[in-house]
Design brief:
With 431 residues, this protein is mainly beta. The chain contains 4 helices and 27 strands. Strands 12, 13, 15, 16, 18, 19, 20, 21, 22, 23, 24, 25, 26 and 27 form a 14-stranded antiparallel sheet that branches. A 7-stranded mixed barrel has the order 1-4-3-2-6-7-9. Strands 10, 11, 14 and 17 form a 4-stranded mixed sheet that branches. A hairpin with a 3-residue loop joins β10 and β11. It is globular, with a radius of gyration of 28 Å.
Amino acid sequence: MKKLIKPFSLLFACAAMLFMYSCQDEESTSQEEQGGVEFLLAGDRVSTAKSGITNSKNDVESCDMALASYAVIEMSGETYNINLKAWGDNYKTDLIELGPGTYQVTSVQLYDTDDHPLYATPSADSEFGPFVSQALPFDVTVENYRKIEYDLEVLCIEAFTPPQFGFVFWDITIKQVKNLCVFANYCMPDTGHAVASLDAFVYPNENETSDEDLIWSGSADGDYNSDDEANELLCLKLPYDPSIPTEDQSFFIKLFVNGILVETTLSLDEVDSINEESGYLHLNENCDDDYDDFDETGCETAFAFGNNTFMDLELTNGRWGWANEFTDVQDGTYTLDIWAGAGQNNTSSGTLVGLLTIEVSGTDVTVTYDMNSGYRMIETHLYLGDNPPSTIAPGQYGNTNNLNGESSDSFTVSYSGDGDFWIIAHAVVCE
């Protein structure tokens, strides 16, 4: 019997050891199955990523990647706050542990220690989307036992606005949005109602309306025959903090209806009432300047006449306005008429409100707006670059001045100096 005890004891010990190793192996396998992804981030400025985009308010110091503390990355509906670390000349996120599968990356934003936005990757359909090799969204695939390192470009935010990157706003503490959808008519003398084009700009309040204050902007081109209903109904995006009563949250809205500026301040409880009553806001429905809660300002949009319409450049289906292509330009002075209210690019239906003077001296171009008697400007926007414009949204032209009813204004912008450049000159003109 004693002879059997020793082999049995050895057999039991072996079995126990095998069980222990088996458990450890299962635990190790479970840990190794949790793969993940790290992002290797290379930063750049918009002005160097794409020539022709300039911003006089750019702050070079704010474009130091060393100031970035963490990244906020959204993948497949989940938000990850990930620390950053230096990695050679670039920066890398800590590992985001993920199970096996494919994940869509929809947002990448970098913040400093004070939660200020510094860098972001633009979406493919935004103004800055073409300036990076990999825009949003894109997919990453995570496998068992594998850590993936993914190269990604981010652009310095500087004084640019969230819509230029494809975002609604930078404030990461507010995750909810209320919609205010707007539809507008205008009246044709012979045919009656027609669908109006819309340009909307949302600001915190009427005293904070600079480009840096812009919360959201969007447009609908009024192309009634288009298959895309979004061309006719414009849905404004309004950030919503559920911890604050809706009556205490309001926004200042500038709305151009066929180029005519109307504006108002709306609280979120008013937005809720509009949505509950009809689902959207219908403006000018009776063809008698009926703008509901919006106030008419007596101002409208104006463009310098050009050799290319926005429709020629396939930037819109129905919005009027011009871009100018200058070729083989020598040093000297050139002039263009400024027209307001020239729907369908028809100057006979518009008003000649001023003159644009373009002075070329080497790589510098000075553009001056001079209004005719009886007209004043409250905003000017200028696009000047070596490449054709990619947007018709004036706030995204790269050069903006907010004015107080001036009759003259100017910008000086540099370009490559090869004699070929593009210009869009826009102004908001009031009588």
